[in-house]
Amino acid sequence: MHFTLKQLRYVEAAGRLGSIAKAADELAISQSSITAAIDSLEFGLDYDMFVRTPAKGIQPTPSGIEALEMIRNFIHQTRQFESELQSIGGDATGLVRIACYATAAPAFLPPILRDITVNFPSMSIQVLEGNMASIIQFLDEGRADLAFTYEEVTHSGHTFLPLFKAPPYALISVDDPLSRASYVTFQDLAPRPMVMLDLPRTKEYFLSLFDAHGVKANIAHTSRSAEIVRALVAGGFGYTVLNIKPQNAEGEMTRYKSIPIRAPYAKPHSFGIVTQTAARQPKIVTAFIERCQALQNNGAFENITVWDTDA
User: Fold this and answer.
1) pLDDT tens digits, 221-245
2) Which CATH class is domain 5-82?
3) Which three-class secondary structure string do you get for 120-184?
4) CATH number of 169-260
5) For the chain, first and last CA: distance in Å?
6) Domain 90-165+269-304 maps to which CATH number in 3.40.50.620, 3.40.190.10, 3.40.630.30, 3.30.1330.40?
C-alpha cells in the first residue's frame, strides 16, 4: 500500500468536516483531489472508510473512525518531526496552532503575539477561535497544539497550566447609578435587566452564580456575540457579567464601566494553557508556552481581570 502525507491530510480533513466540498474549501484544492485521495486509500486498505450519501456528505464507517484516529495521530507526529528539524539551527521556527476562547482573545492574545513577534520572528501563529466546547474539540482533534481556556472545561486527558485567575465582574452602562459604585453584589444586579452572553457552558455558569447567592437573573436580552453584548450594555439595555475585561474597557469614549462583584460564593475561574497529556510537544510549542509563562511572571495579564480590592 502506497500513500502520501498529502493524501492523508486530504482524507483527515474530509472525515473531520464530514464533507468533501468543505474539505476542499479548507485546503483550497479541488473536490476531485479529495475524492481521489479517499478512493486511493480505500483501495489500498481494501475496506471503505466512508459512507457517501448524496446531499448529506460523508460519514465514517466503524473501521473509518478507527483509521481516522490513527491518521490524525500520524499527522500530529509529522508536524512534531518537521518542527524538530526546523529548530535544529537554534531559533524556534515553524507554525504553532492555538485555540482561544473567543471572548478572551481580544484582550488576552495581543501581548502574547507582540512578544512572540519580537522574540521568535520565525515563528508563525495560527489562531482558532470558538466557544469553550469547540476549542477543546479543536485540541482533541489535533487541529490545535494548545488551547487557552478555563480549567473547568478540561478533562483527564489534558494538562492545564494556569496563567491567571478571573473572578466575575459586572459591565454596567455609565448611565446606570451602579456604575459609580466601588463594587456591586448579585443582589444589587438581580432586579435589573441583564444582557446575557449565551454561549455553551457560559450561560449556565453565570446563572449558577446568581443561584449560589439566592437570587435569579432578570435576562432581558441574549447574544452569542461578546461585541453585541457590550454594545447593548453601552446603549443602556442592561448590564452583563463577564470574567475577562475587554480591550479599552475604560475611557472617555466608552459607555460602560467594569465594576467588581463582591460575591462570597463565586470562586474565580482559573484561565490558562491546555495541552494533551499524552502528546509530546515539539520544541516550538514548548518555546511558545515558556514565553507565555514569562509574560505571566512579568504581570502581562494583570490588567484584564477585575477584582474587589476592598473585600
Assistant:
1) 999 999 999 999 999 999 999 999 8
2) mainly alpha
3) CCCEEEEEEEECHHHHHHHHHCCCCCEEEEEHHHCCCCEEEEEEEEECCEEEEECCCHHHHCCCE
4) 3.40.190.10
5) 67
6) 3.40.190.10
Tally of CB atoms within 10 A around 253: 6
**CA–CA distances in Å: residue 107 to residues 101, 110, 204, 243:** 11, 7, 23, 11
pLDDT tens for each residue of 50-75: 988 877 788 889 888 889 988 988 88
> Which residues in the chain are classed under CATH 3.40.190.10?
90-165+269-304, 169-260
Query: Which of 214, 183, 205 lies closest to 267 in space, CA to CA?
Result: 205
Beta bridge pairs of residue 166: 269
**Could you tell me the pTM of the whole model?**
0.73
- DSSP per-residue string spanning the chain: ----HHHHHHHHHHHHHT-HHHHHHHHTS-HHHHHHHHHHHHHHHTS-SEEEETTTEEEE-HHHHHHHHHHHHHHHHHHHHHHHHHGGGSS--EEEEEEEETTTHHHHHHHHHHHHHHH-TTEEEEEEEE-HHHHHHHHHTTS-SEEEEEGGG--TTEEEEEEEEE--EEEEETTSGGGGSS-B-HHHHTTSEEEEE--TTHHHHHHHHHHHTT---EEEEEES-HHHHHHHHHTTS-BEEESSPPTT-SSTT--EEEEEB--TT-PPEEEEEEEETTSPPPHHHHHHHHHHHHHHHTTTTGGGS---TT-
Residues in the chain: 311
113-157 pLDDT, tens digit each: 999 999 888 888 999 999 988 999 899 888 899 999 999 999 999
| Location of each CATH 1.10.10.10 domain in the chain | 5-82
